[in-house]
Amino acid sequence: MTPLDIVLSGLMRRYTERVPDVKNILYALQQQGVINAPEAIENDHIAFRTMGVPNLGLASFEKIFLHYGYEKKEPYNFAEKKLNAYWYAPPADRAADNLPRIFASELRVGDLSKEAQRIIHKYTDTVTSDPVDALDLNDGEAVDAFLHQPLWKMPTLADYQTLLAESEYAAWVIYNRYYLNHFTISVHNLPDGYNTIDEFVSFLEQRCFKLNSSGGVIKVSPDGGLRQASTVAQMVDAKFAGGDTFRIAGSYVEFAERRVLPEFAHLPADQITRQHRRDGFEAANADKIFESTFVAQTGR
Questions:
Q1: pLDDT tens digit string along 238-292?
Q2: Which of 169, 245, 289, 300 has a CA between 20 and 30 Å from the CA of residue 77?
Q3: Which CDD domains did the record assign (predicted)?
């Protein structure tokens, strides 16, 4: 395995252990005969959240995947949520492997209230140099361990709840750090009857999976080419500094249908590859999918 493969495998292994919906959805698909094994699923993209502070944020985080050959693509701005984001295309020399795209976002900490900034910096200021610079990025196991280790001390419940009241994104990151926020099933590569987002959502709803309803269960880009949905984040029992415990939002599962671009509509289905489908992301869709971890969804 290459270092990138080791990192991706480690991320998915720990994420799957932490998010029961992953195994439950894959089991339901196998039980229904849609797939023979979990490996039949194509992972459209994985997503990460970061804090926009010195030595951390996107400027630090992206070094990992840029080193592995990912290409930085379009920027996104989420004004209301005070976020910046980019997506990263998989290495061109591994196009045949259909590796996941990366979607990474960053909280504009300086746009928050003075109190929220104070709380965040109380933790992040302990990081006095870019931790990625100290990593051997060719050591996949070391990078995998880094992505699952504490970046700062455990927050107190009071600090978490103060952040939660102002920025649910900030609260998520202060506790969860670089944990994989979600992975995404490419529904367009599933068999007929399940390969549109509408059919797939119907399949999930029949099995009582709880889906994010913000902006409608199915989020559609203006061009109609990117159609997305997601589960609501799984709640986890979190232990805070001082021994307090509280149930908080963990991670979730996303589903994406990327439709064939008009100029390739004439191609036979068995000739359609990733390059023939709508690529990239849509800010309006992503804005609502962020809310899969928000109390308005998890508390329904």
A1: 999 999 999 999 999 999 999 999 999 999 988 999 999 999 999 999 999 999 9
A2: 300
A3: VOC_like (cd16350)
